[in-house]
């Protein structure tokens, strides 16, 4: 594999946790292997690996962009990642308030609903 892949896997594990990445890797097939390589190298090995902004800031941006574009399926995963990126609950709400103003209240409202449920699940886990 490439250096970007190796760095991407390192960052991906640091942000999402070993358990999540292990599940994703176990579910990978020959069909989606090129896609998984692409996101590991591009998203994790290039964008998330950059030192230009902090992981806390990157986490907030990611959550806001997911909500603003209506990609709600990944919000719980990235809410769980805030435990590793340093983004607080208040940071998340601030990001979603920006979504409300610039992309629409319904999108922000749904993202906040997902965040509340995910934070509650996180509290229930040891």
Automatic annotation (TrEMBL):
Record domain Carboxymuconolactone decarboxylase-like: where: 35-117
SUPFAM superfamilies linked: AhpD-like (SSF69118)
Molecular function GO terms recorded: peroxiredoxin activity
Tree of life domain: Bacteria
InterPro entries for the chain: 4CMD/NDH-1_regulator, AhpD-like, CMD-like, Decarb_PcaC
Alphabetical list of PANTHER family matching this protein: 4-CARBOXYMUCONOLACTONE DECARBOXYLASE FAMILY PROTEIN, CARBOXYMUCONOLACTONE DECARBOXYLASE-LIKE DOMAIN-CONTAINING PROTEIN
Protein known as: 4-carboxymuconolactone decarboxylase
Gene coding for it: pcaC
